[in-house]
């Protein structure tokens, strides 16, 4: 069974893309520099696909720095990145650990955007582990949160994720319900990629229904 995915819950973190690797390494020589954490994050991004071990190394350096500085929001954002990196490498249980840590901080800070990002990535982990009911619970919670902060894009993504889950569970009526809600929200945003994915997923449901 094939369905199309549009899931992105990466918590934003400003990085220094304009800097080259050498200049970034000069910055990180000075751990007290205001740019140190951003430099580590950018180096991590540089190695994400070519040297994932190096990418994780620089994320951990950034994490240590944010913990020492008691910069809790940045700490949670880096934990989300570590979770995504582990998820991409197939270390799903490690990924869940990082996402749960980030969620705990986000809830303490009462940062809705950070809570959504943490929960969204945690939901992705449950999906990858085949723990579909837990993933459904997470995405439903995300939808409730998006209604509070009026985040239509994330709401559309979460509804699409629910559609995927019910499609996997062969609950086609529910899958159609959530894909159609997702489609309407993407149409309201004029998001052509989301609209196209919604239509493809709806077509997949009808194909499976025969």
Could you characterize the architecture of this molecule?
The protein is an all-alpha fold and 210 residues long. It folds into two domains: 105 residues, Tetratricopeptide repeat domain (Serine Threonine Protein Phosphatase 5, Tetratricopeptide repeat, Alpha Horseshoe); 81 residues, Serine Threonine Protein Phosphatase 5, Tetratricopeptide repeat. The protein contains ten helices and no strands. Helix 8 packs antiparallel against helix 9. The longest helix is centred in the first third of the chain and has 18 residues. It is elongated and about 60 Å long. About 7% of the residues have low confidence.
Please write out the topology.
Blueprint (H helix, E strand, L loop, with lengths): L20 H7 L8 H12 L4 H18 L2 H17 L3 H18 L2 H18 L2 H18 L2 H17 L3 H18 L2 H18 L1
Helix pairs in contact: 1-2, 2-3, 3-4, 4-5, 4-6, 5-6, 6-7, 7-8, 8-9, 8-10, 9-10
Summarize the structure.
With 210 residues, this protein is mostly helical. The chain is 77% helix and 0% strand.
Helix content: over 70%
Radius of gyration (CA) equals: 19 Å
CA-to-CA gap between the ends?
Answer: 13 Å
CATH first level of the largest domain: Mainly Alpha
CATH topology of the largest domain: Serine Threonine Protein Phosphatase 5, Tetratricopeptide repeat
CATH superfamily of the largest domain: Tetratricopeptide repeat domain
Main sheet attributes: strand count, strand direction, barrel closure:
none
* Overall tally of domains: 2
- Would you report the number of β strands? 0
CATH A-level architecture of the largest domain: Alpha Horseshoe
Enumerate how many helices there are, as a single number: 10
Give unreliable regions as ranges: 6-19
Strand content: under 5%
